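Many introductory courses stop at the sequence. We go one step further.
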Amino acid sequence: MKIELFQQSQFNGKLKSLVKQAESIRTHRSTPADVTFAEVLAQEHDGMGIDTFYDLIGVNPAFDTVESFFTVPNEDVRWLIPEIFRDALRLGYRSSPIWPSITAMEETTVGLSQVLPSINMSEAAPKRVGEGETIPVGTLSYQSKKFDIHKFGRGLKLTDEVARYVNLNVVSIYFQDFGQKMGLGVDTLAIDTLINGEQADDSEAAPVIGVKTPNTLTFRDIFMIWLRMSKIGRMPKVIIGSEDSALTTWDLDEFKVKSGGTTAYTLNVKTPLPQSSDYFVHGNIPDKQQLILDPSAALIKLNAQPLLVESERIVSNQTSAFYASFTLGFAKLFTDAAVIQDFSKDFLAFGFPAWFDIYSGLDVPMGK
């Protein structure tokens, strides 16, 4: 690091306040936001980019090491290190996660528990009404549900040898990998919520639907779930399964055999069905099972605390420790927006639950 450039720059003595400003936004009591140091820098200094900022203060991530920040006389510059590693963590965290594709919305919450509405349609099917008769009244029941959100975190220690000899760009690669593993952890939490719900009594667990011939998956079995979910207003555009389940599904002729430049599945079904489906592979799904879901109605993500990165120097073992943490939770929006398809079970024994029947309770003329 060229300390003389930093001392001559407009940021001499101001880095700590910039970092603290970013931290105050992330830790705001009622509206915490996941902002980057670069975003705060641009806001406070007329859109200045991070590369220009590094040039002005004499920092070269391809050359400078962690130690170069801790050995300069001006301690103000040391506040930048957690922000550099936070950006790398955040990049890895958001590089290839599943949860953004299966989450209908994100909300900011305060505290470690949250109350959401749980609206149930009941006795709302249309009824035949004779001449002069009173129109029967249905009911819309409202309940609330409470669920917990949790704090997740992990620390990384850099030995003095790493801090002294490895440049920031290389160290950041490892923090990106650390961030990817954090993203995998959040994916696992989201998928667990889809499968089991967020209630202790499993009242919002996804229904398990079998297949026509146990241990044999056919396109008909997938189409059956697509059809039923679409009939109740859910568009099942996403499937999540294990590697084995993914290979079984991709091996179906309807998805791989082409005739005249297109696949065999060309039936023009007028009931709204997905034209395509995104398939995600995740180790939290058992073999011979896959989740079929409507990503616009299945989950809500509650954010209580964005990603924080803090550091400390541990003299006893000559390491520098960096700690990353965040607080969040997932909750079901609509229980009927996610279904578990189990290839090993017979549909006759594991069919759609009663509340999945769109025609239940109808009392209208159905023909002679």
